[in-house]
Design brief:
The protein has 227 residues and is α+β, with helices and mostly antiparallel strands. The protein contains eight helices and five strands; from the N terminus they run ααααααββαβαββ. Helix 8 (187-203) links the parallel strand 3 (171-177) and strand 4.
Length: 227
């Protein structure tokens, strides 16, 4: 597989080097090399007057992070996203859900968790991700629990365990990105992990691991003996 780095040194798609544009990157490096925003840009196709496609994709991605069940009507409220483009995106998301349904991948190592969440590394803010696992340690889904710096005030256990409880999960793995590129966990990261693990024991839903990650590497609490 070709090696690549996620870079974005341009303000609009027209300013990007041709080889760095989503369609060219797709042909050259494959779909895995594209960020979530770039994948949405390919589906949207083009922007509108005064509203470049990357701005539309960025706004949509932020809303999808907060609410994966975004409705077609809610998508059309995004400036520059009309009914036709919103319909194409909505249909693509539904097709993706149908194709991966009941095909969860086994989580047995920190590298398996990284594989599931690496595409979130392009976010400019920290996002706390939760992966509920069934009894066979298959990933059931990936949800965004919070957006913003991790601390006891922002991260509430009810948000972390909400989807896991709903799906009757046996365990969870959590992860969050560090946009700075430094994967060393902070004191708040350690405190949040401890609190979530303790709540998991009460609920009977084990916390398997916590990953701090960038696009290229990760720090596993389990591997470093902090679980």
């Amino acid at each position: 597989m070709a090696e690549y780095r996620i870079t974005k040194g341009y303000c609009t798609l027209r300013e990007a080097d041709i080889s760095d544009r989503p369609r060219e990157k797709l042909s050259r490096l494959g779909a895995e090399a594209l960020t979530d925003e770039e994948l949405l840009m390919l589906i949207i196709g083009s922007g509108t007057q005064g509203r470049p496609v990357e701005s539309i994709a960025s706004d949509l991605l932020m809303k999808l992070d907060m609410d994966p069940g975004l409705t077609l009507e809610e998508m059309t409220l995004i400036p520059g996203l009309g009914k036709a483009k919103a319909g194409a995106i909505y249909a693509s998301l539904e097709l993706g859900r149908r194709r991966v349904q009941h095909k969860g991948r086994i989580i047995s190592t920190p590298a398996d968790i990284f594989r599931e969440i690496r595409h979130f590394s392009s976010r400019t803010q920290e996002v706390l991700l939760v992966i509920p696992l069934n009894g066979a340690h298959e990933a059931m889904t990936t949800v965004v629990a919070t957006i913003g710096l991790l601390n006891r005030t922002i991260v509430h256990p009810r948000e972390v365990f909400a989807e896991a409880v709903r799906q009757r999960a046996a365990a969870i793995a959590i992860a969050h990105n560090h946009p700075s590129g430094n994967i060393e966990p902070s004191a708040d990261d350690r405190e949040v992990t401890k609190r979530i693990a303790e709540c998991g024991k009460i609920l009977g839903i084990k916390l398997l691991d916590h990953l701090v990650f960038t696009d290229e590497k990760y720090y596993s609490f389990l591997e470093h003996g902090l679980m």
